[in-house]
Amino acid sequence: MGAVQARMETALQRFLPAPEIVPGRLHRAMRYAVLGGGKRVRPLLAFAAGELAAADPGRIEVVAAAIEMIHAYSLVHDDLPCMDDDVLRRGRPTCHVEFDEATALLVGDALQPLAFQILTEHVIADSPGAQLEMLRILALASGSRGMAGGQAIDLASVGKTLSLPELELMHIHKTGALIRAAVVLGARCGSGLAAKQFDRLEHYAKTVGLAFQVVDDVLDCDSSTATLGKTAGKDAAQAKPTYVSILGLARARALAEELRAEAHAALSSFGAEAQRLRELADFIVLRKF
Known about the structure:
The protein is mainly alpha-helical. The protein has 16 helices and two strands. 71% of the residues lie in helices and 1% in strands.
């Protein structure tokens, strides 16, 4: 994990515009939002899936950087006063607090196209058609039928009671879509998987994506702001429906373990080459931050 995280920090520094380039304030804010923090779960998943497909690490690095830029922009926008109105992210002031709201809005506006720009500037697949399909997958995962759509459902659900299937649908979009994209695109950087293997990998990605959100809801309830690096207890304070509010804390923890077992089962036909994916399923469920 440490090696991949360090590699991604270097890659992201290289792909992001230098702070000396005009407009300097916007570029400094973009770098503030992306660099120097975060677990890099999505890049870790991309590298693990790429290893399974015998992919070139240089290709995975580009894909992982693009996905992390999309993720970082979503966090910047999520923290804005018009969304979740938060002041702390990754243990430091949120982007709009450190800079200002208008700059934070532009950070998201700039990071999203930059993600697709770097995907077009590097060879990440064996053919142009395959590369175009990878861009389509990331666009779908990022837009109204993916992450942005999930955020819209989330905002519309404040103060409401959702059923468990409704909550799952929201998080399949909001959190799960980009996690699934990380796994799928990491694997598509290689060429060593059959169609049925991709199906199993997508099922793994769906389960770890949901598990990630379940654990996030648990940690928001029973962890501290200092440990999380973001405001704890925010979901309950804002009357947001969560796995804890619907199921209770004990049942939510049990659900995370069930999803972890399901993720392992999805990888049962793979050998040692899937070990990183198995370990990441464990990390996602057992993490404390």
